[in-house]
């Protein structure tokens, strides 16, 4: 199948996730194009879409959300998987409870434009300079940690599950 993996990234963490998803789908025999949502002028011509964005303030980046809105007619009736890259792995202490609220908040903003087969929230990279001096101090004070929290095994397993679903779709279409 012809798959578009599109992403909106703020500091590069999401492009890493998108690239890994695309690589796994290729190993399962799919033709995969990987682009930033800012590079895509027309998303037509694909059988399947995997779209992701970095998350800021419990919402996708404006460019990611705008892509879904702009391409909603193209995406309608097609299998669409969504992924978000946020903070869950960086949170501990009282903030850990907040992480469970992030995914429903993210999806609430996106469901007007697309009904995904599935959405997955992954942890990304969190650096002090991303939050600014004050934000960094507050983040640490409430139990946040800095580092690369991407779980490559979980990302690859999810991409493998997408590939298995696509195999089922291909079988049904025959």
From TrEMBL:
Check the record and name the SUPFAM superfamilies matching this protein: Flavoproteins (SSF52218)
Q: Which residues cross the membrane?
A: none
Family annotation (PROSITE patterns):
FLAVODOXIN_LIKE
| GO MF | FMN binding
- Every Flavodoxin-like domain range: 3-163
Q: Which InterPro entries match?
A: Flavodoxin/NO_synth (IPR008254), Flavodoxin_dom (IPR026816), Flavoprotein-like_sf (IPR029039)
* Coiled-coil region(s): none
Q: Write down what this protein is called.
A: Menaquinone-dependent protoporphyrinogen oxidase
The source organism is Lentzea waywayandensis
């Amino acid at each position: 199948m012809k798959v578009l993996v599109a992403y909106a990234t703020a500091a590069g963490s999401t492009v890493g996730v998108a690239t890994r998803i695309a690589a796994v789908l290729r190993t399962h025999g799919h033709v995969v194009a990987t682009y930033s949502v800012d590079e895509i002028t027309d998303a037509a011509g694909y059988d399947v879409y995997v779209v992701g964005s970095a998350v800021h303030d419990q919402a996708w980046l404006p460019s990611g959300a705008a892509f879904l809105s702009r391409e909603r007619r193209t995406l309608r009736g097609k299998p669409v998987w969504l992924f978000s890259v946020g903070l869950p792995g960086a949170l501990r202490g009282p903030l850990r409870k907040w992480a469970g609220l992030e995914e429903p908040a993210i999806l609430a903003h996106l469901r007007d434009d697309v009904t995904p087969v599935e959405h997955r929230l992954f942890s990304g990279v969190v650096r002090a300079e991303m939050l600014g001096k004050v934000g960094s101090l507050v983040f640490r004070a409430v139990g946040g940690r800095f580092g690369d929290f991407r779980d490559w095994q979980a990302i690859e397993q999810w991409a493998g599950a997408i590939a298995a679903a696509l195999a089922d779709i291909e079988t049904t279409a025959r």
